[in-house]
Amino acid sequence: MPNDKCVKFNCPDCGADLIWRCQSCREAARNYTCSSCNTQGP
């Protein structure tokens, strides 16, 4: 569940999806994938 240590942003390539990143995912640099354009990022 998103909390105050999470971040959210639109996909940096297409802007279509809202991506949530929890603190532990950011610290571990786990990848995310945009479901609209398949862009991946840490």
TrEMBL record:
Q: Which InterPro entries match?
A: HVO_2753-like, HVO_2753-like_ZBP
Q: Where is the Small zinc finger protein HVO-2753-like zinc-binding pocket domain?
A: 2-37
Superkingdom of origin organism: Archaea
Q: What is this protein called?
A: Small zinc finger protein HVO-2753-like zinc-binding pocket domain-containing protein
Q: What is the species listed in this Swiss-Prot or TrEMBL entry?
A: Nitrosopumilus maritimus (strain SCM1)
